[in-house]
Amino acid sequence: MNEQQQEGQAGYRAWLAYHPRMDSAASKEESLRYAWIASDDRDDTVRAAITEIVEGIGTMYGAAPRISATATDAAGENGPRDSEPNAAYGAGPGILVGTFAANERLRDIFGVEVAELGREGFAIRAKDGVTAIGAHTPVGALYGAFHLLRLLATGIDESELEIVERPANKLRMINQWDNIDGSIERGYAGSSIFYKDDEIDFDPARIRDYARLLASTGINAIAINNVNAHRLESRFVTGDYLPRIAELAAIFRVYGIRLLLSINFAAPIEVGGLPTADPLDADVKRWWRERAADIYAAIPDFGGFLVKADSENRPGPFTYGRGHAEGANMLAEALEAHGGLVVWRCFVYNCKQDWRDRKTDRARAAYDHFLPLDGAFRDNVVLQIKNGPMDFQVREPVSPLLGAMERTNQVVEFQITQEYTGQQRHLCYLVPQWKTVLDFETRALGEASPVKRVVDGSVHGRALGGFAAVSNIGADTNWTGHPLAQSNLYGYGRLAWNPELSAEAIAEEWALQTFGSNRQVADAVVDMLMDSLDIYESYTAPLGVGWMVNPNHHYGPNVDGYEYDKWGTYHFADRDGVGVDRTVLSGTGYAGQYMGANAGTYESFAECPDELLLFFHHVPYGHRLKSGLTVIQHIYDTHFDGALRAAGLAERWASLEGLVPADDYDEALARFREQAEHAKEWRDRINTYFYRKSGVPDERGRTIY
Amino acid sequence: MNEQQQEGQAGYRAWLAYHPRMDSAASKEESLRYAWIASDDRDDTVRAAITEIVEGIGTMYGAAPRISATATDAAGENGPRDSEPNAAYGAGPGILVGTFAANERLRDIFGVEVAELGREGFAIRAKDGVTAIGAHTPVGALYGAFHLLRLLATGIDESELEIVERPANKLRMINQWDNIDGSIERGYAGSSIFYKDDEIDFDPARIRDYARLLASTGINAIAINNVNAHRLESRFVTGDYLPRIAELAAIFRVYGIRLLLSINFAAPIEVGGLPTADPLDADVKRWWRERAADIYAAIPDFGGFLVKADSENRPGPFTYGRGHAEGANMLAEALEAHGGLVVWRCFVYNCKQDWRDRKTDRARAAYDHFLPLDGAFRDNVVLQIKNGPMDFQVREPVSPLLGAMERTNQVVEFQITQEYTGQQRHLCYLVPQWKTVLDFETRALGEASPVKRVVDGSVHGRALGGFAAVSNIGADTNWTGHPLAQSNLYGYGRLAWNPELSAEAIAEEWALQTFGSNRQVADAVVDMLMDSLDIYESYTAPLGVGWMVNPNHHYGPNVDGYEYDKWGTYHFADRDGVGVDRTVLSGTGYAGQYMGANAGTYESFAECPDELLLFFHHVPYGHRLKSGLTVIQHIYDTHFDGALRAAGLAERWASLEGLVPADDYDEALARFREQAEHAKEWRDRINTYFYRKSGVPDERGRTIY
């Protein structure tokens, strides 16, 4: 714990707040179950698990477990010490934590059924007064410790614990879009905690707390710099910056998190002094091999490279007449011997010109570029595919590339930072959106190929897969600006570990841990979170059409903001109708990229789901949706309704005054009020725009001006 | 001359380039007419006139006049000296320059008819081989010197000169919107030449050259800081900055230019430590009187204060329940004893809310605020009224306030800097626009009350009046970014001196002085300048509706950019029509602010001039203009045509390669090419927008997409 977690720093502790239990009698009784904690492991990760448990239980119950002598060393110099060496270990109620290999007593308690845990799983069993957390690895034990604390904080009765968990996904990654000047691309919570003024500059205590937050949800990898790696960031792979990067890696390592770097494909030229970055050039290959060797000398468990190439003016293999596979494989070869990965982003499109091009459908780009390359990538390459074909809109169909490549490792990329979903000034709990993506049936193998089974590798039998997402944190005390936006970071990690968790269950876990066990607070917060995505969607761009935002910064309504621009983001609204014809029959053909019956569903004007209708079809304003409303009336109704519901969020939050910490309360209330005002602006701009275009009045006679 | 006027610094000398005459035989002969120059005046201003003539004639003819002994002192240490004292004076052809009071021979030459010249006028007469420039004041003599040089540079035969000139307007002012951080609000030619890094920081040689340029056109006042005076600029009126401001004033003084300061109405609070800025508060009055005394102690001919109050969130008397007259008069009282003016801007409107308000017509604001105050202002207050009711759009009607106040001093405000007219990346010669304004018949007194006669004071017998305009210069070597944008600064000064000059005559003067006497160049440049306003108007917002620009920076097309914003700048386009109903009968009533028959002309759908139709009326797309075209076809035709004509400008300029200095050529060519591309973008955005709204295809079948 560092000094930032003081009074007046509400929000900093986030979901690791370990609020004191409100029922002090019950609390006292429960605390007796954890009189001591012990482990025979001696590594930093198990020490971290012990420290966390001592802190968590101590804060929640008012009495910290004594660290038994055998575990004293593990807790390190600063942990509380048992006054009676060995007295507690094994006698009376307590906690055992660690690896099976090091702890004979854990092997005794769990017996033989533990193989299924894998490298990162854990088992928890309460037996004979001892709560045992066992794993094959120290990080498994750490995950188990966080899990036990989560159960205690959310009020689960832990007397009959019998838990076996392992993560669904191998790769559970966070991408920081942080720049070395201290700014964060699409960051809405202050400046970077990693960089400042063109230097790597961080507070180790804050980085450790970030690692704790991430590890508590199960995150195991972090790319620490922006995928748009600019001139100075290009040099991260050279010697100058490596000592500081290694310090960061060492902090994350304790929490089971491997560090990756976003690289600049042109680095051999920009910082290597070579005349080319051609991936087939022998000098280029050698240069990258040397960089990999340097990095692994400093960071033995380095995770690998994250690459955005040949997209939005980033350099890449196309310059040299090479393809994505040749580019990725060259880097993969350099990392292979060290166990590193190449994570290659599929957000690939380029504007061929300075002016709009309505013939090319940008939605097609990822599929068109990558499908032909299936099987061409090395085993340590993973393609990182955005959840939708465009760019993190509030509503998009699922990317047709997910599941389409049978012989290629894939991770799905989400955006935790709310670039298009209110920039942490509007409440938008994104877990329901991600659940929709994960549960989407790709039909890759008939009827049992949802996205979550594609990216965990099981559909196509891939050894590697998982999740990536863009972080939403910054140097703001509460990490995420909007206090409730923490739920998105938390929820992402939890889903990456277990995509079967419901959005509501995650919301409830988060609320109870963050605000304590007051049910009134938790219920209100869960309701607000669960409503928020629908509210946001209702007052912004309708029916999946997207992009009605201000260019560049992407905050606030601008119906035609992207309509006359070069980015391939058009809604084609005219006086008769709106929407993009992406059918095979008469449109861009994008609908045909889907597998099996999905293609037909989207192709069909009648079958296409309402919420995606304008993404796939250009539709007259008078067309009746499945809801029975016309398109234009749907627009009016959802926008009037959405603005009212946004105002309701502010009221609901106001009802919690005095029940949540004052800092959090004030911070969030100001944002809810901004959201309510801003939702009215959204309502009026969208409604006026479509009223003026269509000339159709609101059936219910409300004022559109 | 300073060292910036070297090779490779083309553009710096602007219209004072004094190109060598191309016909060397004629040149030689003419130069004989100016063998010497003499004056009995001894002040800095006449010295400057002599220096200018020596430099100008020397450069143009290859032989500088000898400064006669009697004038040697006047030319100062650095002027060329006559080798034979007194030998030249009065013998053979030469130039006499100075005041009648100091020069007996001037009195002899001109006789008695010189009273009409006033304080700033001059007379030129060539008689008996002597070219005489006489005036009542040194600055009159300076204006005469510049005029003679203009005649020589433009090739006027000066053997029979008989010229009497006096300025039409008393106040001929430039407003610098320069900020002390070195930035310039709406500046498109580099940073400030006055400020840098929160300090007053200038190169005296450059300021002197700016003063020369201004004085050569007749400018006699300059407000040196942004009308939006911020915290540091508020302190210009206190002691700290005055020594440096006095240095600037001293440079301008030599060239007959009085210095003014833009003030912050809240300065008594912000820098004076008073609890209020209430104009009726005794302490506030005293504070301003003290400031005025301080300033005049440092700058005896200080011009006065320029004030933007109670507009766009600037502080003003409204805060204290006072009106504009009370605010202005309080400042005027403080300045009165010293001979200073208060120039009070009428660009007054405020957004009452954060969101749009379609009921209030911002166009009405200046008239509604100020008309009731007629007669309430002190004699040393001048109202500065923007040429149109909105904000320097390419086409607006003339402000109805101009001429409406009989007992109030008025100056018309133009914008030389091209905020809404292409930002010195597009060519837009604004003199024709200003001429339209100046020639507009206000009907204040029946049929002989054009704006130019209102602002020169003659219509209502006001002692004070004139022109103000926002400068377009910055630290770019060529002053204005686009080399041809210099013509706007030149033209503004010339019009302020003499509003009867034609736009074409001014263009020709400017071209010949700037690029030399090559007729091919001058003819091409004049043609381009004269076409440019119409070209710019044709591809931007149609028929006077304005505001189809990107918010904030105001560059480039954004048809709905201001349509849903709070600034009162709406075009009301819907599927049926476009334009703002400002009639009395059914609209905002703005048309009724005009005097006499003008009100009826604008009120009438049939009589309203085409070019202002959408400013005054909401019109169906199918309405036939007086041109015979429908509104929608007019939009299509002008936009297709405008883009073609913009491309033609680039071609015409390209034909001058080798005939204009290479730096100018390259600089302008790059801008013409940008303009041509950008005009296509304008064309496509506007046409597509209206095509989608109206559904009416182009009669001529051109592609609108």
UniProtKB/TrEMBL annotation, chains A, B:
Q: Which Pfam families match?
A: Glyco_hydro_67C, Glyco_hydro_67M, Glyco_hydro_67N
Q: Which residues form the active site?
A: 312 (proton donor), 391 (proton acceptor), 419 (proton acceptor)
Instruction: Say yes or no: keyword Cell membrane present.
Output: no
Query: What does the record list as GO biological process?
Result: glucuronoxylan catabolic process
Q: Where is the Glycosyl hydrolase family 67 C-terminal domain?
A: 480-702
Family matches, as SUPFAM superfamilies = (Trans)glycosidases, beta-N-acetylhexosaminidase-like domain
Annotated Alpha glucuronidase N-terminal domain ranges read: 14-148
Give the catalysed reaction(s), semicolon-separated. Hydrolysis of (1->2)-alpha-D-(4-O-methyl)glucuronosyl links in the main chain of hardwood xylans
Q: Which UniProt keywords apply?
A: Carbohydrate metabolism, Glycosidase, Hydrolase, Polysaccharide degradation, Xylan degradation
- Glycosyl hydrolase family 67 catalytic domain: from which residue to which, for each copy? 154-479
Top-level class of the enzyme under EC nomenclature: hydrolase
Signal peptide extent? none
Its Gene Ontology cellular component terms are:
extracellular region
Protein EC: 3.2.1.131
Q: Name one GO molecular function term.
A: xylan alpha-1,2-glucuronosidase activity
Similarity field: Belongs to the glycosyl hydrolase 67 family.
| Subunit-structure text | Homodimer.
Q: Which PANTHER family match?
A: ALPHA-GLUCURONIDASE A (PTHR39207)
Q: What is this protein called?
A: Xylan alpha-1,2-glucuronidase
Organism encoding this protein: Paenibacillus methanolicus
